[in-house]
Amino acid sequence: MSSLAKLTIKPVTRQTKLSPIEARRNKLLTAIDEQLQVADAAMRGEEYAVTLSRWSKNDAGEKVRVQRQKVVRSWFFAQDGGFYVQCKYGSKAIALSKDGNAVFVKQLADVKPVLETLRSATANGELDAYVAMAINTRKNRDKLAS
Predict the structure, then answer these.
(1) How many domains does the chain contain in total?
(2) DSSP states of 19-61
(3) Is 126 within the bounds of a domain?
(4) 105: left (phi over 0), alpha (psi -120 to 50) or beta
(5) Domain that holds residue 39
(6) pLDDT band for position 71 (50/70/90)?
(7) Is residue 83 a part of any domain in this protein?
(8) What is the pLDDT of residue 2?
(9) Mean per-residue pLDDT for 40-45?
């Protein structure tokens, strides 16, 4: 018996790229995960910051890699005696329904369950159409500006 006969061999073509819808969904899921961290920090009374690596020139004029802190902006804010939670794609708030683009909750502790609900809705593809509308609105605005 040959060595190759012991192996299971199948034809396959490697999928190299995600579809645009899957890529947008993954980007939004990553951002929602980051907002969950922001919500945890806000409940502790802290700011959530991420460490980024950047290239910068030192005093001698050489390029060196530098670690910098970046405070992440929250998607939720206090107003009208409670908190509004928005879901954003980039800097644009996504419409969550025909009625509006934010969810209202009474307490800061209720923000995290809303973000978890948004995460599961995104993972199930429920926000794909709204993300596409936000992108198309931006593209149309850019065309009008030029």
Answers:
(1) 1
(2) -HHHHHHHHHHHHHHHHHHHHHHHHTT---EEEEEEEEE-TTS
(3) yes
(4) beta
(5) 19-45+73-140
(6) very high
(7) yes
(8) 80
(9) 96
